[in-house]
Amino acid sequence: MRGNTQEEAERAIDEKALTGALLLLGEKDRALLIRRYYYSQTSAQIAEEWKLSDAAVRKRLSPALNKLRELLSEQDSSFFSS
Question: Whole-prediction pTM value?
Answer without folding.
Answer: 0.78
